[in-house]
Amino acid sequence: MTKLYYADPLSAAYMAREFGVKMYIEGSNVELNSWNDFFVEYGGGTIDAFSDEFYVHPDSYHIFEPQVGDVFEDANHRILKKHKHTIAVIHPITIIQRNNRPFFWPESEEV
Questions:
Q1: How much is the pTM?
Q2: How many CB atoms lie within 10 A of CB 84?
Q3: How far apart are CA 58 and CA 39, in angstroms?
Q4: Can you give the residue ranges of every domain in the chain?
Q5: Spatial distance between the Cα atoms of 57 and 87, rounded to a whole number of angstroms
Q6: Per-residue CA distances from 107 to 39, 80, 84 (Å)
Q7: β-pairing, 23-25 with 2-6?
Q8: DSSP β-ladder status, 107-110 and 2-6
Q9: Residue 87 pLDDT grade (very low, low, confident, very high; cuts 50, 70, 90)
Q10: Phi, psi of 19 (to 5 degrees)
């Protein structure tokens, strides 16, 4: 199984705000379901933005599936133009833009 996460708190907070990505901090009860949650938890000292990794909740994994209109970067760092139809992904891709907004791709780890 692959787990997705953000090591950068700003990328994590942005993805929560712009795309509704839900996250959690492993080993704690902290769930981050919105942009506001990041500020409440950070301000309260629950989050250590410099050492915590922000894991993507499995309910949000569908957000990382290709959608019509996405801009991709392939494994060779070539930019693939927006597509008009759903595509079958043959090789690894990274979504870099969705709905004309930056899309920050998470890191992953095998567990």
A1: 0.80
A2: 8
A3: 22
A4: 1-64, 65-105
A5: 25
A6: 22, 21, 27
A7: unpaired
A8: antiparallel
A9: low
A10: -125, 0
Q: Can you tell me the distance from the alpha carbon of 64 to that of 58, in angstroms, rounded to the nearest whole number?
A: 11
The reported pLDDT for the residue numbered 43 is 63
Q: Which residues pair with 108 in a beta bridge?
A: 4
pLDDT digits (tens, 9 = 90+) for 21-73: 998 888 777 777 776 776 666 666 666 665 678 899 999 999 998 888 888 88
Beta bridge partners of 102: 97
The one-letter amino acid code at 52 reads: D
CA distances, 21 to each of 4, 12, 60, 74, 80 (Å): 11, 8, 6, 23, 24
Structure tokens, 57: 């909740």
For the residues 78-99, what does the mean pLDDT come to? 70
